[in-house]
Amino acid sequence: LKYSLKFEGSNVTFDGDSIAENTVSDLEYGSDYEFTIKPDDGYNLNRLTEDSVKTNNGISVTKVKENDDGSYTYKVSDITADTTVIVKDVKPNEYKVTFSGDNVNEEAVTIYDESGNNITSEGIAVHGSDFKFRIEKKDAYSKSNVTVTVKLKGNSGDSNDSETETLTLSEDGYYTVNQDKIKGEIEITIKGLERNKYIIGFS
Length: 203
Hints:
single chain; four-stranded mixed beta sheet
């Protein structure tokens, strides 16, 4: 008897002997089969658990090893029926966002993300999504001449593998880092945030 093994999952590529269009055919009764799950660019397998990689019929599938390139190797054991391996919980990469610059501290400003979370100390950007934030100054400070620049690091994390651009405040009050630019950690610099000055007159 011969059996087939199919693979289903989003944001991953399956690799193994004779895999074509995510299917292996003509597997012998009782045979084992090893395959590799490789995440697509911008995704990772860090959150996979035993329940994340399963078969549709209860046939055993176990992780063999984690590879240096971020892929994982699995084995389906004792194949006795046509089987589908289903992979879930492949998550997009998350990257740290930090803020610096003139008076960028809790005393002068609060920085919020689109969900209303306070990210003044640190935020998180997610692969495949725009990163939006707004700056809310304290009463004692002015932001009329504020400029916001962003340093975008590449996949390597090397400071030399980066680009810098100036962000523009949109009508909804947010600055946006476009998702196609997000490939690594983000450093945002805010300049021009100044403490208000007052003239005191005597008569």
